[in-house]
Amino acid sequence: MITRKLAAALAAGCTAVIKPPPETPFSCLALVELANRAGVPPGVINVVTTQANVNDVGREMCENVAVKKVSFTGSTNVARLLYRMAASTIKKVSIEAGGNAPFIVFDDADVNAAVEGAIVCKFRGSGQTCVCANRIYVQSSIYADFASRLAEKVAAFKVGNGLESDTTHGPLIHERALEKVKRHVDDAIERGAQLVMGGSRVPGKGTFFAPTVLSDVPADALVNTEETFGPLAALTRFETEDEVIRLANNTSVGLAGYFYSRDVGRVWRVAEALEVGMVGTNTGLISQAVIPFGGVKESGLGREGSHGIEEYMNTKFIAFGGL
Q: How far apart are CA 246 and CA 45, in angstroms?
């Protein structure tokens, strides 16, 4: 997250002040140490680590007139607060906030490819990326086939110590994250969803949650209305293209969306209809350095990567007269 912003800022000739999240400060400090060793001059890259006074630091960065631009990655709720504070000095603002990515599998899809795409899109980082699939919609005629193949793949996962070679998935970032996944699982089951596998905390130390698959999840379940950010694959049936587009767009955020289909006409039609900033068609991986990364609606403003350097520059017009 930091390098996406920092690279563009430095390339545009800006200095930078980084406030890493209190859960993960060391990787940021290591990055800056490497920059120092590489010869980046003192004062160009700066870091403020904080845990107790996060709000005060955020306010200072947003309201201090010396700061010309604020770029934030995080939750939509925090993004609203920072956006409001930055308005006091009318700064440039880039926001990459929450997502709720739909993953759609049409009946003309390559089911094996769709399963592989769902695995990498839903479970990488144990589901803790902003572009992870959050709502998996499968057309009724292939629903059972897709669900069984997905469950077979997930059953082979091993949760545990990342230093062990056969471990496939690690812990969630903190206790609150684990509790949210559990809340989404319990809510879906209470509304009629079926637990295929997982659904609970892994016994022992740490914040490990078993990779989980739910079937027949109703459209109004919490997992379909909130971003889970955990290893929970929730499958919902749909019948028609119009129905699933309506379900996919029925959210206040719009970061990424995915779908599988071998109908070229449908590919263009659905890609244009999805209200998201990034679409993966027949792929579960969209993040690359060269793409314009970002969303629409309450997922944020601006883009990172690709032409993202423009977020750190201003356009100036100079009219020469009297020559």
A: 45
pLDDT higher than threshold 90 for residue 288: no
For residues 227 and 132, give the distance between their C-alpha atoms in angstroms, rounded to a whole number. 9
Per the residue annotation, which of 33, 60, 96, 152 is the catalytic one?
96
Domains and CATH numbers, the chain: 1-97+299-312 (3.40.605.10), 101-281 (3.40.309.10)
Name which of 159, 156, 97 is nearest 127 in CA terms. Answer: 159
The yes-or-no answer on residue 96 being catalytic is yes
Q: Please state, in angstroms and rounded to a whole number, the distance separating the CA atoms of residues 252 and 296.
A: 9
DSSP annotation of 147 reads H
**Which of left, alpha, beta for 39 (phi over 0: left; psi -120 to 50: alpha)?**
left
Q: How far apart are CA 155 and CA 281, in angstroms?
A: 26
Average the pLDDT over each of 52-56, 101-105, 181-185, 250-254 and give the range with the smallest value.
52-56
Segment 145-191, tens digit of pLDDT? 999 999 999 999 999 999 999 999 999 999 999 999 999 999 999 99
Tokens 């094996």 belong to: 112
What's the whole-model pTM score?
0.95
So what's the pLDDT on residue 293?
96
